[in-house]
Specification:
The protein is of the alpha+beta class and about 220 residues long. The chain has eight helices and six strands; from the N terminus they run ααβαααβββαβαβα. The longest helix has 22 residues, at about 75-100.
Length: about 220
């Protein structure tokens, strides 16, 4: 007999051990190809692909299943231009006044600066918003638990889904990002979490030479 409000875990499928190992290896090999890019093509992306990847993001675990996220998907060239202008204004302040020398030194190897042409070139910008609480039609608040962690999980799943569909992405976090609320028409109880740039990489796209940590660098098995 099911407990009230519960149902059997009928969707779960256990795999044979060999299949588990094979899938885990294939998944690593695929996601290990993922790179953040800053050179995007203007080639259109089917909206259905974006919708399906957002559905993947919505399957992420969240505190008390509150699902404290909202995604504003921008493809309108006029709105993308507004986002670029606002983001570059904040980025100029960052590079010229806010960033410490240590921070600028850390960024130097990536060749970044205040100019963000990809915000107009890429076919999609996805504004990710974190909801600190929910509001019903009467203005009553419902607190969200662990909203930042929950939105981070959903965003990670979205990035992985986009990659597996053959798309590139860039996590862009100009600070502050209040301009996204205004441009996207989002309420004040939502906070802009990040701006995800999505599309195909340009034919001549280049990425920095980096080295990822090995398993032994970031994992401890306590057995």
């Amino acid at each position: 007999m099911n407990k009230p409000g519960f149902q059997p875990l009928s969707a779960y499928r256990q795999l044979p051990e060999a299949a588990m190992i094979e899938r885990s290896e294939e998944l690593f090999e695929d996601l290990n190809r993922r790179r953040t890019v800053r050179d995007f093509s203007s080639q259109p992306v089917p909206r259905e692909v974006i919708e399906n990847c957002l559905k993947v993001a919505n399957t992420a675990p969240s505190g008390a299943n509150m699902q404290p996220w909202h995604f504003s998907v921008i493809s309108d060239p006029v709105i993308k231009k507004r986002v670029r202008e606002a983001a570059e204004a904040e980025e100029r302040e960052f590079y010229e006044h806010r960033a410490s020398d240590e921070w600028l030194d850390a960024l130097a190897k990536f060749g970044t600066n205040a100019e963000k042409p990809f915000l107009e070139t890429a076919p999609y910008l996805i504004g990710v918003f974190m909801q600190k609480y929910a509001l019903d039609a009467d203005g009553n608040k419902t607190k969200h638990y662990y909203p930042q962690e929950s939105v981070g999980l959903a965003t990670g799943m979205l990035i992985a889904a986009l990659h597996q569909c053959g798309l590139a992405s860039l996590t862009h976090t100009p600070s502050p990002m209040g301009f996204l609320n205004q441009i996207c028409g989002r309420p004040t109880h939502e906070r802009a979490f990040l701006l995800l740039v999505v599309g195909f990489p340009a034919d001549d796209a280049q990425v920095p030479v980096i080295k990822r940590k090995t398993l032994g660098d970031f994992v401890t098995f306590i057995e």
